[in-house]
Design a protein that fits this description.
By secondary structure, the protein is mostly helical. It contains 3 helices and no strands. The protein has helices at residues 2-51, 53-64, 103-116. It starts with a helix and ends in a 7-residue tail after the last helix.
Amino acid sequence: MLGLVVLAAFVLVPTIGTYVDQRQQIAALTHDVEATKDEITELTTERERWRDEAYIVAQARERLYYRRPGEVVYLVADDLPTDLIEPSQRPVSDDVQETQRDWMTQFLRSVTEAGLAETVAPG
């Protein structure tokens, strides 16, 4: 009886493992199909928008700055208050600032450490 139980375990365990793997693959593929359907819906909507002449005109005006004959277009530069501008886009200071460290020493240390570093074999 014990032999039959062991034999059944040897026969059924790989089959169950295969079943679980296939179910996981089916779930992943189902998710991919749903994502693709959503993408198709978005692209269809976008295509329908581009068939509308008013949308095309609006995009040409917005993206390419096209205008109709006789229109005067004004582009306003720096129209945001300074507190709304991101720090990376703010103008650079006119004051010269001295660094806290010697950059040449750091550069030489970096080159030396890079040259003496142990490399890892790909694999």
